[in-house]
Specification:
Layout (H helix, E strand, L loop, with lengths): L5 E6 L2 E6 L10 H16 L5 E6 L3 E3 L10 H13 L4 E5 L2 E3 L1 H8 L2 E5 L3 E3 L13 H4 L5 H10 L2 E3 H6 L5 E3 L2 H14 L2 H34 L2 H11 L9
Parallel strand pairs: 2-3, 3-5, 4-6, 5-7, 6-8, 7-10
Antiparallel strand pairs: 1-2, 8-9
Helix pairs in contact: 1-2, 2-8
Protein name: Enoyl-CoA hydratase family protein
Family: Belongs to the enoyl-CoA hydratase/isomerase family.
Pfam families: ECH_1 (PF00378)
């Protein structure tokens, strides 16, 4: 059941959706992507939902695609676009680690927060692929020089750096304290005002989807089918260095 992978609670108009597959570090599978898409669709239609908080169970927000059961690239792109287009603000609450495709979820959200110990990495290049479809929300919102470094090296970086480059709105030691004024502001804002303001803020991101989604989806599918990607994924699963590592 896909619903078992997404926890749902509500408090004073704020719906919290939790990625709830800690045994797999909330890796993106077809089932998890479908479950999150269904939950977001429910929130979008519910007039009692003022905003959505996207969070997680366990120590990892999302480890990226599950290499044993990855979602179809077009399904993942559709999920990212759904977050961007949702007529309710989506706030990411990260208290752990984010890797690869999980950073696409983060970038698609309107407001992003993380605890100080959280870490981030674009690990695609290390298994022989590229951060293709996640670039749709990332490139319009994040510092291009920083992305060049972290895309090309796969280095891990901390929450302070993530905030500096625009991946995070803010970071702090106590996420409840960090989020309190954000959620209070969203509750005090009119639904119409929130929807139309979000439309203004996401216009450039949606232009990127309209222009580049098909090409980047095709690129992702092509790269995952290559011998280098097969070696990189096998090495990752076997916990060894790939053949090209020096």
């Amino acid at each position: 059941m896909t619903t078992a992978l997404i926890g749902r609670t509500r408090a004073r108009g704020i719906e919290t959706l939790s990625l709830d597959s800690p045994a797999t570090r909330n890796a993106l599978t077809s089932a998890l992507v479908a479950g999150l898409a269904d939950a977001l669709a429910d929130c979008g239609k519910d007039p009692d939902v003022r905003a959505v908080v996207l969070t997680h169970t366990g120590g990892t927000f999302c480890a990226g695609a599950d290499l044993r059961d990855p979602p179809a690239p077009d399904a993942y792109v559709a999920l990212l676009r759904q977050i961007v287009e949702l007529p309710k603000p989506v706030v990411a609450r990260v208290d752990g680690h984010v890797r690869a495709g999980g950073l696409g979820l983060l970038a698609a959200c309107d407001i992003t927060t993380a605890s100080t110990p959280s870490t981030f990495a674009f690990t695609e290049v290390r298994i022989g692929v590229a951060p293709a479809v996640i670039s749709l929300p990332l490139l319009p919102r994040t510092d291009p020089r920083a992305l060049a470094r972290y895309y090309l090296t796969g280095e891990r970086f901390d929450a302070g750096e993530a905030a500096r480059i625009g991946l995070l709105t803010t970071a702090g030691d106590d996420l409840d304290v960090v989020l309190a004024p954000v959620l209070d502001g969203l509750r005090r804002s009119a639904p119409q005002g929130l929807a139309e303001t979000k439309r203004l803020l996401t216009a450039r991101v949606l232009e990127a989807f309209d222009r580049d989604a098909a090409d980047l989806t095709a690129l992702s599918a092509r790269l995952f089918a290559t011998p280098q990607a097969h070696e990189g994924m096998t090495a990752f699963l076997e916990r060894r260095d790939p053949a090209w590592a020096r």
